[in-house]
Amino acid sequence: MNVLVWYENRPLPEHAEAERRVYPNGIHGELSALFAAQPGIQARAATMQDAQQGLSDEALAWADVLVYFSHKHWREIDDGRVDAIQRRVLEGMGLVALHSAHASKIFQRLMGTRTHQIHWRENDEWQRVWVVNPAHPIAAGLTDESFMIPRDETYGEYFEIPQPEEQVFLTTAQGGEAFRSGCCWRRGRGKIFYFSAGHETCSVYHQREVRAILVNAVRWAAN
């Protein structure tokens, strides 16, 4: 299985130092190393600074799964690259969209709704992730009904998405918000999984449960 991990790699100036402390090799480096360490997976990292914004036809043709972490610069992705990702998903490439990728052009395109319409707060409060579909392959290995993330950005409903075909996780927050945080869809021959956890200045992607979810997700999304 080939996994392409894509990240803007353009942290906001006020976040850049904190992000480097948490992820010295960038989020793309952290996640590509995680996937490359798994049996049967080859992983590459790409960023917006690469040729064709890291989303070339060649790179997308190589990928069985695209793991996509977008943040503040999602409007700058060329529409031609969005078209190319959509074609590959319809052909069977899996898409795992993480955290702020809810606002990305490709996620909005595939969902057909204004997926950037959510409530959010950058407050580093705790989040509790509830496993609402424990039999789903993406939840494999999670033995408890929920787990805590000590610090993360808070997302809250209303989340303008089509009804998930399968919902795996629901997150409740310290401030009382609830969010459909782990959802699955199919478009054409491709599988899509959105997972909300993972603010760039919090160590969420070092957490055991989250890493297990991500590995399960790319295996589920691959055709």
Which descriptors apply to this entry?
single chain; 223 residues; alpha/beta; 6 helices; 31% strand; globular
Short description:
This protein is of the alpha/beta class. It is 27% helix and 31% strand.
Structural commentary:
With 223 residues, the chain is α/β, with parallel strands linked by helices. The chain has helices at 13-22, 26-36, 57-62, 79-91, 105-111, 208-221, and strands spanning 2-7, 42-47, 65-69, 94-98, 119-131, 146-156, 166-173, 178-187, 190-195. Strands 2-1-3-4-9-8-7-5-6 form a nine-stranded mixed sheet. The mean pLDDT is 95. The protein starts with a strand and ends with a helix.
Topology:
Elements: E1 2-7, H1 13-22, H2 26-36, E2 42-47, H3 57-62, E3 65-69, H4 79-91, E4 94-98, H5 105-111, E5 119-131, E6 146-156, E7 166-173, E8 178-187, E9 190-195, H6 208-221
Parallel strand pairs: 1-2, 1-3, 3-4, 4-9
Antiparallel strand pairs: 5-6, 5-7, 7-8, 8-9
Helix pairs in contact: 4-5
Helix content: 25-40%
Separation, N- and C-terminal Cα atoms:
9 Å
Largest sheet: 9 strands, mixed
Strand numbers in spatial order across the main sheet: 2-1-3-4-9-8-7-5-6
Question: Could you give the order of the helices and strands?
Answer: EHHEHEHEHEEEEEH
Derived structural class: alpha/beta
Q: If you average the pLDDT, what whole number results?
A: 95
DSSP summary, beta strand count: 9
Task: Give the DSSP E fraction (strand runs of 2 or more residues).
Answer: 25-35%
Tally of separate helices:
6
The shape, in one word, is globular
Q: Which residues sit in consecutive blocks of at least 5 with pLDDT less than 50?
A: none
> What is the alpha-carbon Rg in Å?
16 Å
